[in-house]
Amino acid sequence: MKVPYKWLCEYVNIDKNINEAADALTISGSKVEEVIEFGKEIDRVVTGKIIKTEKHPDADKLTICKVDVKDEVIQIVTGASNIKEGDIVPVALHGSSLPGGVKIKKGKLRGVESNGMLCSEVELGIADENSVHGIMILKEDTPIGEDIKKILGLEGGIIDFEITSNRADCFSVYGIAREAAATFDKELKKIETSFNETDDSIDNYLSVEVKSSLCRRYAARMIKDVKIGPSPEWMQEKLRQCDIRPINNIVDITNYVMLELGQPMHAFDYRYVKGKKIIVRTAQDDEKFKTLDGVERNLNSSMLVIADGERPIGIAGVMGGENSEIKEDTTAVIFECANFDGTNVRLTSKKLGLRTDASSKYEKDIDPNLIDIALNRACHLVELLGAGKVAKGVIDIYENRVEPYTLKVSPEWINKFLGIEIEKEEMRKILKNLEMKVYGDDVFEIEVPTFRQDVKIKEDVAEEIIRIYGYDKIPVKKIIGETVEAQWTLEQTLIKKVKNVMVSCGLYEAMTYSFISPKVFSLINLPENHELRNTVNILNPLGEDFSVMKTTGIPSLLECLKRNYKRDNKEVKLFEISKVYIPSGNQLPNEYDKLIIGMYGKVDFFDLKGVIENLLNVLGIDKAEFEREENSSIFHPGRTAKLLVRKKNAGILGEIHPNVAENYEIEDRVYVAEIDLKTLFDAAKNEKRYKPLPKFPAVSRDIAMLLDENISVSDIEKAILREGKELIESVKLFDVYKGKQIPEGLRSLAFSLTFRAEDRTLKDEEVNKVHESIINRLKEKFNAQLR
Question: Signal peptide: which range, if any (predicted)?
Answer without folding.
Answer: none
